[in-house]
Design a protein that fits this description.
six-stranded antiparallel β-sheet, three-stranded mixed β-sheet, alpha+beta, single chain
Length: 275
Amino acid sequence: MVQATLINHTGAREVTLNELAMIEAPPPTKTWYPIAHFDVYRTVAQTLQSAGYDVGKERFSVARDGHRFFGTLDLQNRITEGIGLAVGIRNSTDKSFPIGFCCGQRVFVCDNLAFTSEIVVSKKHTRFGQDRYLEGLSKAVASLGQYREAQGHWINRLRSARLSAEAADSLILRSYEEELIGPRLLPKVLGEWRKPSYEEFTDGSAWSLWNAFTSVLGRTTQATQPAKAALMTIRLQRLFSENAYVDVPQERRGLPALGEQPAGLETTGLDGSPD
């Protein structure tokens, strides 16, 4: 399962890689050095491949007469069984936003300028912007190994943890009391937990409860308020990591207790501020 989402709802259109390569960047000025969209994509693809990551499905779109570029890449490398990695890219040649790269388990890229994931790199189109982007990109890709390990442990712990109905209801109530979800989403999360939309999430595990939350957020908040959805997901992850309602003995799993969060679990931005 890879969750790379590319949404075009404010005028963007999907293009092929060959079409993307035909779009040229305008000439630079004294302070602004735009980079062709294809060069941004190629830098990402080559960096990933050099680090041993295999690119699978790719989607690209452009907007504003080709001046704005958005893309998602599904990686064939897995975090754990059934869970893959995804990458998001964006670039502009009209001074509207900096060069961007994001990666993680969930990636959301939209032509309304929403751009979210666990690891984010952003660099301005300055004289040395391309070099700084490559440097930030290389550091982000290098950090993916640690991210995969930490996230893989966390997901496997949730998959191993069985929740009673009372424990699950209590955790959902806590998420409401701590204002992680509001009264509008509370019954939706309960409904998704008790009657999951997907067969794979009917096993009563903490992982199934996590997917009840994220499925509801994806349908209700992600598309219209991506920044809010990202913050809610981070806070929910902390709540799940502190969860004590686990029926499976920790020593039997050979993994840290849910309250012992692995280092690097909440990597929300390697370099989130434009430079």
